[in-house]
Amino acid sequence: MAEGGDVEWELSKENIQPLRRGRAISALHQALTQQQDGLSSVINQQRQAFESELRMYEGDDPLDVWDRYIKWTEQTFPQGGKESNLTTLLERAVTRFTEEKKYHNDPRYVDLWIKFAESCPEPLDIYRYMQAQGIGMTQASLYIAWSEEYENQGNFHKADLVYQEGFKKCAEPHDKLLQFHKSLQARVSRQVMMEVEDDDSDEEPKQPERVSLVDLKYRGKKKAIALVNRTGPAIRSVSGGLQSRGAPVLGNASNTRLMIFDESKAPTAGPSEPRLEPWMAPPTSRAKENEKRPEKWCDVKKSKFGHTVMAPPPSKPTFQPFVDESDQPPTMTPCKINPAVNTVLSARKPCREGTPLKRLQEHHLQQKEAELGKSQEQSMYCKDLLLSGATEFCFEELRAERYFKKIAQDTQEVSGQKDHSGSSAAK
Amino acid sequence: MSLFGTSAGFGTGGTGVFGSTTTDSHNPMKDVEVTSPPDDSISCLAFSPPTMPGNFLIGGSWANDVRCWEVQDNGQTVPKAQQMHTGPVLDACWSDDGSKVFTASCDKTAKMWDLNSNQAMQIAQHDGPIKAIHWIKAPNYSCVMTGSWDKTLKFWDTRSPNPMMSLPMPERCYCADVVYPMAVVATAERGLIVYQLENQPSEFRRIDSPLKHQHRCVAIFKDKQNKPTGFALGSIEGRVAIHYINPPNPAKDNFTFKCHRSNGTNTTTPQDIYAVNAISFHPVHGTLATVGSDGRFSFWDKDARTKLKTSEQLDQPITACCFNHNGNIFAYASSYDWSKTPSFRQTPGPIHGSGCNVHGPIKGAYPTWH
Fold first, then answer.
1. Which is one Pfam family of this protein (chain A) (predicted)?
2. What is the ipTM of this complex?
3. Which residues 374-403 in chain A show a CB within 8 A of chain B?
């Protein structure tokens, strides 16, 4: 690996989203170098190629194009973000094939669903929806992702039940499911052990207290997608051994604490070693400043003159402060950006109605209605083709793509014929 | 009310233009058919400006050519000349003096066609197909504006190989219109940008789309003082929005209306919705014409908010339309518009087929209302 490249990627680590399957280092290098000069035309061309391929595909495996497109997007936009259109793509891909039974247990399709769920505010709902639709019921990866979600929320019982369900459905590959289930069990038992130890050491009941220096609490169950906290319950050391006891084990709902080295709980103090005596009373707070002792108010002595002597108001200076003549402060901050043309900030558009799950269900409902001929309206144009992928196409673009493809084929044929005739002439 | 009178003295149907009982859906209105039409779908139509004597019609097509016809007072059409591009022609416009025609093509170039010498030369280059082309005549400059799928809007003075100016757009240009000093560009993902052209072109305002579906066509309208004051925007889902730039009362003055739909009142069967392919304003009366993939054209009065007339249904979509300079002639082109590509999910077969090479006659040089 080149030294320069190494530095490059070291410098922009925080802009790289983790991927389940990891990243190809060459793609990462490319993406990071391209990133510096904006959305390059190469990326645009590749995206355009995928978009047109989505619409022109004529084989019997349309999922393949989507799968490659989404994987390309993940690798090309390591920082995620809006311009990657990943969430839109995932949603469209997932919606596109809900009716196609042959894909329901295709590992690629199930992977797309899992990625989609992880990008949603409520992944559990998506997994339940998948279950209801019968998608991925024999795929181990679904149960693993589902269980991990429960585990992240601290619901170990449910997490285990999900694995049981997976075993019942004979999900494949069985080994993988078994292995992940075992590691879950290991983690849970470790957790339980930790809690028992904690109970030994802390006799005083845990009270909710204000914690400082922690991540902000996010509302609801929305996951902070950009942050990867490896503190608190999220720590899962796969290898054996005790978890670092410096990390306090708090409930999932509360904020996780910053890891602070605690001498008294240092891991060197193994369970067999004698412990320090616990405090009998909570330490007095030394953080408060300017604390006034309560006093009687009635005994306060009045001043002699009946009122306190006020400090005289500051008189105006008898001299004129020197002001540089040229130093005329501008009356207004000059506005360099014409507010009408300001493209940097724009008013936040009202977000699309409902959650992704709701949209999925609505789409499903609409399709049912359309099949029964109940829908109020029907579009008399190739809506699927126009609105496939991450961007829309217009009729002319569809037609132009066909045209270019045909031209390319024709020129190939012509050149092929020429080559052929040339070689035959040589003979 | 006789919208389509016979005073101009041509058209074959006489007074009964709309009442004809013919079953021929190829030309149900019995309009004049233009002789020697292009061999493939027609993408654009434009009539010569008022500075030229007579009426000349140009039309660009997917057969890579641009043709010019003279429409005579007796209704006869005479093919005059044609020029070729190396790709389908997507848009065309006239210069203000009528001596030149500018054409935009999928081959990523725009050409200037001098009608006097019948010479064409390249005047513009983009990184993608050029979807819209317009001539801008300002007091202090004149230029050609091109909008492309490469997400740029460029301005060319026709003499230099480099653009006078290149403005980036958030998305691909889908349609545009120019009435000095205003230009409006509608883009993919429902983008809508208004430009002002005084002194030099600059972005004036971005507008949140009044429509919920893909933009397909846009046309600027003028107020009583003959100044551009707003635009009509058509979408692929049978709807047109009338939008003023600075309305006294935005909530009341701006509105949308449905068009190019079937079974409007029948609730038992689903309503069929078609794309609005083009909008054109009458140069005198300010009424507007819309044409759709349903093969119909309609005339509307945006001030009275009423529909004036709808045509019979043609056997093919109508892809383009335009009025001549005094509004006596309305031309429309019926051709295959690609909207009927596999609309059935069950048939993932090839899109092309016999429908692709459809003959596209420009019909309809016939008198419009007074």
1. Mad3_BUB1_I
2. 0.83
3. 375-386, 391-400, 402-403
